[in-house]
Amino acid sequence: GENVEQHPSTLSVQEGDSAVIKCTYSDSASNYFPWYKQELGKGPQLIIDIRSNVGEKKDQRIAVTLNKTAKHFSLHITESQPEDWAVYFCAARDNQGGKLIFGQGTELSVKP
Amino acid sequence: DGGITQSPKYLFRKEGQNVTLSCEQNLNHDAMYWYRQDPGQGLRLIYYSQIVNDFQKGDIAEGYSVSREKKESFPLTVTSAQKNPTAFYLCASSSQFPFPVEQFFGPGTRLTVL
Known about the structure:
The complex is a heterodimer. By secondary structure, chain A is mainly β.
């Protein structure tokens, strides 16, 4: 089955700087890759996703890139703000049954 | 408002007691999921259901049970057989047909077993 690895586990950036979180997946048949943001004590919220027929997708300050050949995808946050402080999870959809397989999470802190 | 509700937000139980966590959605989604979250371990799938009256085990189903009698409801029972039940439990749902789309999560229930 699918396996997703996420790095780094913690990331600290200065306000206004960029942050990059990377994930790799194992099943080349996976075709959907969402990113979730989880604030303390809350459920994860979908912030952006990408499908396997697209190489890059942007939404304001966040972007996701996908390299199908290398089986990795990344989340890019530009001009980091204090409200970006959260745990971020990547995921890949398992080709059997539509389950999401999640990475271990990255705790992003934004220093003023 | 459309969404997923989980209740209660915090739950305390004595060791050896069964406890049932509620999950309700009014999004008309076919599929529902239960995840367990422990610090530093991400989200682990307990059970999922793609359609009413059917469900499958996830990666860590031992010590848990579920039912799916109604499309909008997917309760999770944490039994006394679960060796380490203290955790944050998340319910999610998604539409499956004509193809799977993004999962939406509820606010979670924090279970503490004393």
